[in-house]
Write a structure and sequence with these properties.
alpha+beta, 9 helices, binds adenosine monophosphate, binds magnesium ion
Length: 354
């Protein structure tokens, strides 16, 4: 067994990921004539969150082996990318800020390059140099509001133009002292992509990798169905807002409802607007569907900051991605390519989106 904590194995799949809910319990239970052991679901703790992997394979041992490979891949990436791990490559890059370029693996380089690409298309709304401001807010632990002066002191460090990548030398250099890059807004989606590759190599014919609200699905369930997913209602805990089926694609959700605290009726959450260094105010949740999980994860955070109007405009312009945006008033906006694909839980049809 791999994993630092409890490794739960199920031969059917009742799962709830944060922000998104995997809905194929029913599908697995209904496998008429299909041996149940073909589908294995396991949950472990990685990247600071619950990771659930479902693997479909010709034999139970192949499904187990494939899920193990998926978890190992996520753990490998965590060791490279986590800023909570002092020996990680990103910690080394951050520690050398203002001093030296640091040689990194192709994975770290790929994640940072992808993050810069998301920053470009979102006009800097997605900004991995946001680290010092994220630390000042520290929404989960400190629950205190940084002063304008405190935020002003880190403003100069939140500069994407000071992130330098040298592809040939495979290095990253942060050219201002005190800078810190934080890939928390994109790494889980990237890890889901890579875990899927490892699972396929290990013999899985289909499966799903869910790191909290970042999910990547490949292939179909044994009875031929796509993987059904529920998007959590951002204001009604445990309720599903709408559903859709995934096949060979990823979905990522960013919301203001999981890591936050409230003061005087105001919600302070973990997604910061780089232009104000305050929590972004225009959305309650953003789900992005894309072929690649890294792209979906980066964009969910970026679109959350951009807000429904600019965010949806970007999604329609990009073309190969889809979005479900719940705005600050709770109105649901669905991109044009997705309107035919979504379903509402029974009795909720009247809540039609825009
Ligand atoms: P997600 O849950 O994918 O939206 O990612 C949220 C995480 O991304 C936060 O916990 C921060 O570590 C980081 N983050 C917060 N604001 C931003 C931003 N504007 N751009 C990039 N990353 C951010
Ligand atoms: Mg994200």
């Amino acid at each position: 067994m791999v994993g630092r904590t409890l490794d739960r194995i199920r031969r059917t799949a009742p799962i709830s990921a944060l922000g998104l809910v995997l809905l194929f319990t029913q599908a697995c239970a209904n496998l008429s004539g299909q041996p149940e052991f073909l589908t294995i679901t396991r949950t472990q703790m990685h990247m600071g969150t619950l990771v659930t992997i479902t693997a479909v394979a010709p034999t139970e041992s192949a499904a187990l082996a494939a899920s193990t490979e998926g978890f190992l891949e996520i753990r490998r990436l965590e060791a490279l990318l986590s800023t909570w791990i002092s020996s990680s490559e990103l910690s080394a890059v951050n520690a050398a800020a203002g001093k030296a370029a640091v040689h990194v693996s192709q994975d770290t380089l790929s994640v940072v390059k992808l993050a810069l690409r998301v920053a470009e298309v979102t006009d800097g709304a997605f900004n991995i140099a946001i680290g010092p401001a994220v630390d000042l807010w520290n929404v989960t632990e400190k629950q205190s509001i940084p002063t304008t002066e405190e935020l002003q002191l880190v403003r100069n460090q939140i500069a994407l133009e000071a992130v330098h990548i040298d592809d040939a030398k495979q290095t990253i250099f942060l050219d201002r002292a005190g800078m810190r890059i934080d890939v928390g807004g994109i790494a889980k989606g990237y890890a889901a992509d890579q875990a899927v590759l490892s699972m396929k190599k290990a013999g899985a014919t289909a499966g799903i990798v869910a790191l909290s609200g970042d999910i990547k699905a490949f292939g179909r369930l044994p009875e031929g169905k796509r993987f059904p997913i529920g998007i959590q209602h951002p204001r009604k805990r445990g309720e599903i807002l709408l559903m859709l089926d995934l096949e060979n694609e990823a979905i990522s959700t960013a919301g203001d409802y999981e890591r936050y605290f409230e003061r005087d009726g105001v919600r302070y959450h973990h997604i910061l607007d780089p232009s104000t260094l305050q929590p972004a105010r225009e959305c309650q949740s953003v789900s992005i569907i894309a072929k690649e999980g890294g792209w979906a994860d980066g964009l969910d955070t970026g679109v959350f900051v951009l807000g429904p109007a600019r965010g949806m405009h970007l999604i329609e312009k990009l073309g190969d991605v889809h979005a479900i945006i719940v705005d600050r008033e709770g109105k649901v906006h669905v991109s044009s390519g997705l309107k035919q694909r979504i379903r509402f839980p029974a009795g909720e049809e009247k809540e039609k989106p825009r």
